[in-house]
Design goal:
CATH superfamily of the largest domain: Aldolase class I
InterPro entries: Aldolase_TIM, Radical_SAM_PqqE_MftC-like, rSAM, rSAM_paired_HxsC, rSAM_sf
Strand order of the largest sheet: 1-5-4-3-2-6-7
CATH class of the largest domain: Alpha Beta
Keywords: Iron, Iron-sulfur, Metal-binding, S-adenosyl-L-methionine
Order of helices and strands: EEEEEEEEHEHEHEHHEHEHHHEEE
Shape: globular
Radius of gyration: 23 Å
Low-confidence stretches: none
Number of domains: 2
Pfam family, one: Radical_SAM
Bound molecules: iron/sulfur cluster
CATH architecture of the largest domain: Alpha-Beta Barrel
Protein name: His-Xaa-Ser system radical SAM maturase HxsC
Strand content: 15-25%
Cofactor: [4Fe-4S] cluster
Largest sheet: 7 strands, mixed, barrel
Number of helices: 9
Length: 382
């Protein structure tokens, strides 16, 4: 497996007193009027001899012998993919790529705090005060392009931020009125008061993705490591619908719940048939999932019959189903029509077996972050 895309790194100052901080859009255009250059940095990845404006980042391999000007830096060649329209955050001579124009998905992480503690969490929560993240995002959102098709809000648990979460939603509504918004939430915070505030403003296309791991409350509570979470989450889903919000149920398939999938499908049909879609997801074996591998990992070949039964039950009742994070060669052929290439491109990879596979272009591939645990029985279509 190859490396995932590098999204964070250090800037090396090439002149004294470099003090650039904040969000900047990458440009490779040298002839921009100064008024349009205000929130931009010039990215020089092509020429060491070019006259360079202040606020320039050279790719390391192109850095000049003698740099002149203000705020001139160089950066690791691994960032050569940066292009016009990408947005970076510069903070104390570090750089994080906040938005890539060519990315297959754009996510904003609102917080690393969470009131669940899922045993397979790929992004383990941190009990820290990270409210500064929201303040940063308030600066980023106005810079995002109006043409952005969809944006995901994630965490941690984004709704734990209360009114700051609403503020972010409203800012997106104001600056990106034609962008779909997908919120990943554990569904435990959707009281009437909170939902009233969310629904006060008409959002263009807002959906909440809520995990529900089993029809059995004990199994769900065990997986999320939170007592009474099942009841709170089901109540949250019902409340979201009472306030006319779109809801997606997310089921991460793992050792503790794969045999429950048919019963969970029946539970959804009897109690939550109004949801907009149900997504069955493969594991990303990083974070807690990696440490808890013996308690969470199940070979996808083990659960194909359960998954097929669950999807057949839901589809017959016209509930829209999707499958994320799976490879075509391990999915039952009758399930291919539900499969979506869902892994973010910066951490999406293929293995050597895939090199000559006829279905590579339509296959979801692998998480680059899961390289210690790949499904068995991967076999190219020839
Ligand atoms: S072998 Fe083909 S179907 Fe299997 S994971 Fe690789 S590309 Fe996908």
């Amino acid at each position: 497996m190859s490396e995932k895309l590098k999204l964070k790194g250090n800037l090396k100052p090439l002149v004294p007193n470099c003090d650039l901080n904040g969000y900047f859009e990458i440009t490779k255009k040298l002839d921009l009027p100064s008024v349009l250059f205000k929130n931009k940095v010039f990215f020089n990845d092509f020429d060491t001899s070019t006259t360079t404006p202040d606020k320039t980042i050279f790719l390391q391999k192109n850095k000049p012998l003698l740099a002149q000007g203000k705020n001139i830096y160089s950066i690791d060649n691994a960032f050569s993919y940066l292009n016009d329209g990408d947005i970076i955050l510069i903070k104390e001579q570090t750089i994080s790529v906040a938005y890539r124009k060519n990315a297959n998905a754009t996510f904003l992480l609102l917080t690393e705090q969470c009131d669940n503690f899922c045993i397979m969490c790929s992004q383990p929560p941190k009990a820290i005060n990270d409210e500064y993240i929201v303040d940063q995002l308030m600066e980023l959102i106005p810079l995002l392009p109006k043409s952005l098709h969809e944006i995901g809000l994630t965490g941690g648990e984004p709704t734990i931020l209360g009114n700051k979460f609403i503020k972010i939603l409203n800012l997106i509504n104001a600056y990106l009125p034609n962008t779909s918004v997908h919120v990943l939430s554990n569904g435990k915070s959707f009281s009437d008061d909170f939902l009233k505030k969310i629904s006060e403003r008409k959002h263009y296309d807002l959906m909440f993705g809520i995990p529900l791991y089993s029809h059995n409350y004990e199994t769900h509570d065990y997986i999320v490591q939170s007592k009474n979470a099942f009841n709170e989450t089901v109540e949250g889903i019902i409340n979201l619908k009472r306030f006319q919000q779109k809801v997606e149920i997310r089921v991460v398939i793992q050792k503790n719940n794969y045999k429950d999938l048919p019963d969970l499908a029946n539970f959804i049909l009897r109690n939550l048939q109004f949801v907009d879609q149900v997504v069955f997801m493969g594991l990303e074996m990083t974070g807690f999932a990696r440490g808890n591998a013996s308690d969470v990992w199940v070979e996808p070949s083990e659960y194909q019959s359960y998954l097929k039964e669950a999807i057949t039950t839901l589809s017959r009742a016209k509930v829209r189903c999707r499958i994320y994070n799976h490879q075509l060669c391990i999915l039952d052929r009758s399930l291919w029509e539900y499969n979506v290439s869902s892994i973010s491109d910066w951490k999406n990879n293929f293995i050597s077996e895939c090199e000559n596979c006829l279905l590579r272009s339509s296959c979801g591939g692998f998480f680059a972050t899961s390289d210690n645990r790949l499904p068995q029985k991967i076999k190219a279509f020839k």
